[in-house]
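$ run holo --ligand "AFP" --emit tokens
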Amino acid sequence: MGQFPLTLGRFIAQKQEIPPGAAGELSSLLTQIGLVGKLIAQDLRRAGLIDILGTTGEINVQGEAVKKLDEIANKTFLKVFHHSEQVCALASEEMEKPVLLPENWPQAQYMLLIDPLDGSSNTDCNMPLGTIFSVVKSERKARMPTEDDLARKGTEQVAAGYLLYGSSTMLVYTVGQGVHGFTLEPNIGEYLLSHAQIRIPVRGKIYGANEGNYHKWPGGTKKYFDYLKDKDAATGRPYSGRYSGCLVADVHRILLSGGIYLYPGELDKPEGKLRLLYEANPLAWVVEQAGGKASTGTMRILDVEAKQIHQRVPLIIGSANDVCDAEEFIQGRR
Ligand code: AFP
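-- output --
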């Protein structure tokens, strides 16, 4: 008789990847994130039927129009983690300031940084969406963490990953021992192990980027894109372009089949668009743990100094050899 696939809970318990001492809290935290994912997925499935598409009329801290679903996803995180024993602070793309949870402190050791609904321009056209999360540990035992304590380097993450709301809902995470993917089985409401120890190919054949920004890019970046589209059978070019406008979906494709995703710096905006703490860092750690690379074009994402929670960073991420090529062009070495 075939074996029933492992549920998220059993997998975490059996793998024992999580350091002893942290096992209980970190496992429950990941399970709670899974619960948030189920709740958000449920809203997304019915969104066109219950008047939760479109915008709220608010503009968020990033200067972007807030979608109703952005707000719902953010509130879902707050509700689930408000009275949790794991999280004492939560920073989100949707909130200018983090929410500090003194009622959970000092027993709750972890701080959560999230993009609750990534790719939210996709909400109104039934395209894929995601949630990105990064978990860091609060080191200060003598006092509640402050906003500054949340701004930490990517190398300090203790868990990271994403939920992808596509044709199925998936939870992909790392705690620094490889990357595992779980697919939500909707009939029983459980995440089942579908992608154990994901490895990204060392080179791919696709690139993902918003090429409408081509004229804004520096020369080296433009030259790299010209190179990708150039014909050369020996190096597998031209690459195919694939871009959904949802970072999670675009990076997930590359994680599974190889290639490169770029949201590079621009001439007038060298810091790029994506946020370091809750977009670039968690995805960078996932991709590195799968054998890939994540760079700003000039340095490793995980080594970027974090100065504030909504800091932006250029992101070039994917198969190791593809990211190395991009770095060479961006740095003017090719
Ligand atoms: P949000 O919906 O969380 O703001 O994310 C959108 C996003 O940051 C990311 O998902 C996409 O890769 C990128 O923006 C798309 O940006 P463009 O619209 O400029 O291509």
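-- notes --
The radius of gyration is 19 Å.
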